[in-house]
Write a structure and sequence with these properties.
With 527 residues, the protein is mainly alpha-helical. It contains 24 helices and twelve strands.
Length: 527
């Protein structure tokens, strides 16, 4: 894609990329020789849907930046805060009692409860990397433990010590009275127990780069702030990381807005420039309430990917990141069909419009070609009337509708069929309820049946749709929506449904005639 065309793009990743280059970087390549994008990860738990969203969105901005400024090198760091002390034992791990004996210790110093890695931190880090690799993200993994212990952060940590009072004065007003009395941005690692301690400092020695504190055994202990002997409280850590690594771009949730402001102040105190930040809105459940892991409301990554491909989730993440969105099961079919619609439109668009199409960003400028044009909603309805969980049975209808289609020739459609079966079984089937048509509705349905009997088996979806409309106008001239609702409730057992012309063409005219006969005879409602 020509960078000149990209300069006119109004898609939000391009707007973010232009603002980063012009406002944050002043139109120049940073002294370090590249532009650094970053995402952070707390490895006390497994990667989740928020992790995916943050990396996916950041990648979209980075790819837009590369298109706009192809001569400017870029890198993406995914940083794991694996030196944090474990505060509580997660619920979803084995050997909880064993892990419970290591509370307070850095995650990379706790034995792996799964028994397959050097530590609990290493296990979760590998889960994160496997998670990111699964979706094809390009990134460089960074371990906080390694950054602290190998000296990468040493210069920045000494800078924090040098500006200790200034940093304290920024943070203390945000704390409660009790917390203020013991607060220090440094968390020393006890040389005796290995625990990460949250204690007051008894002495700050800037000249020697050390601090002193009362250790767990009651003795005053002195440690250097460098070499992994201390880590920072997370807000100070965030600011120090920006400064030490030279982070240019990082996004974060609305719940961290105040933390971004505070960490930005600290970053400036250290002599750095805070990264360009995008604040994204949080997800809501179907009731409009904020999603909480402790409540268990909302939708998990694994749940979404059970019913739809990752590209549909990427689209959900792409759309309006600054707007709160409801994340629950009902959005999955809609997101999947929207993705398919954007794929279909892409090939017909000019370059200036392609670059604003979400699939350009989802696939980094190289989206797949559309296949049969079948929607996910249509597949759901096909599964509904076929009463089969066998993908091969579904494919018989698909190949009848589109003889050139096959699982081999249409790999993306082939992926959708099992998703449709799974979604139907878990969400459509339990609520499916056919009703008997009324006397007037029976007349209209029989008229439709008679009209279909006059059609050729290969009549197009468009011509079939026209026929359905004509019957509807005859009986429901004032309310065509009511006509479609009659068909959905009596033929499909649900209140909403597909474009009937497309459905009939896919399911088959002969099969639809039999379906109408069963509905009129009460076989569906009483079955």
């Amino acid at each position: 894609m020509d960078s000149a065309i990209a300069m006119t793009a109004n898609a939000w990743p391009f707007e973010e990329a232009r603002a980063l280059y012009n406002e944050k970087l002043g139109g120049k390549v940073p002294e370090k020789g590249y532009v650094l994008f970053e995402t952070g990860y707390g490895p006390s738990g497994l990667p989740h849907i928020g992790t995916f969203g943050e990396v996916a969105r950041t990648t979209m901005v980075m790819n837009a930046f590369k298109t706009l400024y192809p001569d400017v090198p870029v890198r993406l760091f995914c940083v794991s805060d694996d030196m944090d002390g474990l505060r509580k034992v997660p619920d979803n791990i084995p050997n909880k009692e064993m892990v419970g004996q290591y509370l307070g210790k850095p995650l990379t110093k706790i034995p792996d409860p799964f028994g397959c890695h050097d530590s609990f931190g290493h296990h979760n880090n590998d889960c994160l990397k496997a998670f990111l690799d699964k979706f094809g993200f390009t990134y460089e993994f960074k371990s906080a433990t390694e950054l602290y212990t190998t000296g990468v952060y040493d210069k920045a940590l000494l800078k924090v010590l040098e500006n200790y009072e200034k940093i304290i004065n920024v943070i203390l007003p945000t704390l409660g009275e009790e917390r203020r009395s013991t607060y220090s941005p440094f968390l020393p690692v006890s040389p005796k127990t290995g625990n990460v301690l949250q204690v007051a400092m008894t002495k700050i020695d800037k000249e020697n780069g050390t601090l002193s504190f009362i250790d767990e055994d009651g003795t005053e202990t002195t440690v250097p702030v460098t070499g992994g002997h201390c880590k920072l409280q997370w807000k100070a850590d965030w600011a120090m990381r920006w400064y030490a690594l030279g982070v240019d771009y990082e996004m974060s949730g609305k719940d961290l807005m105040e933390s971004v402001k505070l960490s930005s102040k600290i970053c400036r105190i250290l002599g750095g420039v805070p990264p360009k930040n995008l604040t994204y809105e949080l997800f809501l459940d179907e009731k409009g309430e904020k999603i909480s892991k402790s409540k268990g409301n909302g939708l998990s990554m694994e749940e979404w990917l059970k019913y739809a491909p990752a590209e549909s989730l990427s689209l959900f993440m792409y759309q309006k990141p600054k707007t709160a969105k409801r994340l629950y099961f009902d959005v999955i079919p809609r997101a999947t069909d929207e993705y398919l619609n954007f794929i279909s439109a892409y090939g017909r668009q000019e370059d200036k419009d392609k670059i604003n199409n979400p699939v350009w960003h989802i696939h980094n400028g190289n989206p797949p070609k559309p296949e049969t044009g079948l929607s996910f909603g249509i597949l759901l309805n096909l599964v509904s009337v076929c009463h089969s969980e066998d993908p091969a049975a579904i494919w018989k209808y698909i190949t009848s509708y589109a003889p050139e289609a096959s699982p081999e020739k249409c790999p993306n459609l082939s992926r959708l069929v099992p998703y449709a079966i799974a979604y139907y079984n878990d969400f459509v089937k339990p609520t499916q309820k056919y009703r008997l048509p009324t006397e007037g509705e029976t007349t209209a349905l029989n008229d439709l049946k008679a009209a279909l009997e006059q059609l050729d088996a290969h009549t197009s979806a468009e011509d079939t749709q026209t026929l359905v409309y004509e019957i509807g106008k005859k009986y429901y001239a004032d309310d065509l929506k009511a006509w479609f609702k009659v068909m959905y409730e009596t033929l499909l057992g649900q209140s909403t449904g597909p474009r009937m012309g497309s459905f009939i063409a896919l399911y088959g005219i002969k099969e639809t005639i039999a379906l109408i006969a069963d509905a009129v005879d009460g076989k569906l409602a009483n079955g």
